Amino acid sequence: MKDKEITMIPFYAAEYLADRQALTIKRLWIMCMILIFLLVGTNALWLWYESQFEYVETTETVEQDIEAEMEDGDFTVIGIGDNYGKDKDKTTYYDYDQN
Predict the structure, then answer these.
(1) Residue 2 within a domain
(2) 3 state DSSP class of 1
(3) Cβ atoms within 10 A of the Cβ of 76, count?
(4) Model confidence over 29-41: pLDDT tens digits?
(5) pLDDT, tens only, 57-76
């Protein structure tokens, strides 16, 4: 291993770099604290905003008539409701022949 030459720098330059680094670290800590306070503040405002609404639960039964046509094994839905293409077991209504 070769010996590296040691470069001497003036004391005032080393002090300047240490002070500059300390100032940078201080600024980063201040920025982190500001960001944390802003995050908490925006979350609090969002919770306040959401609490302004009144949620009401309603239970309502809707009955619909669905007509279907059967042609050549194809099942076509004429009326559509909330669960278009689905039955209670979440399987599809469609029964298309695979040719």
Answers:
(1) no
(2) coil
(3) 13
(4) 999 999 999 999 9
(5) 878 887 766 666 566 656 65
Asked if residues 59 and 52 have their Cβ atoms less than 8 Å apart, the reply is no
DSSP 55-69: -------------EE
Q: Is residue 26 a part of any domain in this protein?
A: yes
Indicate whether 95 belongs to any domain: no
Domain count, the chain: 1
Range of the domain at 27: 9-51
> Angle at Cα 89 formed by Cα 87 and Cα 94, nearest 5°?
40
Identity (one letter) of the amino acid at 43? N
**76: in domain:** no
Cβ(86)–Cβ(77) below 8 Å: no
Strands of the chain, DSSP E: 68-71, 74-77
